[in-house]
Design goal:
CATH class of one domain: Mainly Beta
Shape: elongated
Oligomer: single chain
Distance between the termini: 21 Å
Strand content: 35-45%
Helix content: under 10%
Largest sheet: 11 strands, mixed
Length: 246
Amino acid sequence: MNKISAISGVFLLAAVILGGCSGDPVAPHSQVDYRVEGVLVKSLDGGSARIDLTLTRDSIAYKKAVITLGTTVLDTNAFGYSKTFAPADIAIGQNYNLNIHDSTWLNVNLIISVPGSLAITAMGLPASRLYSGLSFAVDWSDAANANGYILATDPPSAFPDDTGYAEYVSISEGTLTPAALKYNDELVAGTHKVYVAAFIGAPTATPGLPIEIPTANNPDDNVSKTILFGRLAGMVLSVPDSVVVP
């Protein structure tokens, strides 16, 4: 299903590097503003990773910049900028340099930090994962350095709407209520995948995520430079568990 789908520490942002001077440059009066939004997600279900970013210049989609993660140049596409990485290329618990530059004033280095590993350890369901109609608990292991977690469901392919359920959770346990498995107040029959994502930074919805990003209680923007603003996150996505609605 196509979805426009951690470091009790700090999401590190490197200093802006512009033309060999320390600190931010003095921008001209006609300075433009850029905004970046995106997520680097490492999936533990197979190990691959993907980054998806959007970049705007004065609120208009902008694809004339060159964006690199480490030494890899991101591709441009309908969404913005993306790249899929083999399992060995992106590791959990590591930091990655993101450089964004164009032919004008923009030349910014940022750091995206990928959280540690995590796994769903228990679900308040029988081994068959058959749903009883009641709320049930989901527990998972702590991810090193996570700022927080997202508990989410990915509904069956026959789900009548292209959205699942997602909520932010601050600790390594949560509860899924019947609402997480419903559409228009009716339970949707079939197998719903259950995911937990650990993150560092400020998540945003991207095509590379099989889960939704919650619309409530979103972390504040975490990119604020002289000419570049926005939100970025590193994320680790668990191997999914499941719940079966009869």
